[in-house]
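Please, structure for the following, as tokens.
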Amino acid sequence: MLALSSRSRAALGDERFAEAYESGWQLTASQALARTDPARLGRTVGEPPG
């Protein structure tokens, strides 16, 4: 997990990473799992699968 955080911070920069990190803590567990589901890669939020 630490490697992912480090790569994310490097890619986003400190300010954008902090914003994303904070917004992640506002999600419920169900919302967080839905957003990290690998099946969603390449889709827009709310877009149905397929």
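The chain has a mean pLDDT of 82. The helical segments are 2-12, 14-25, 29-35.
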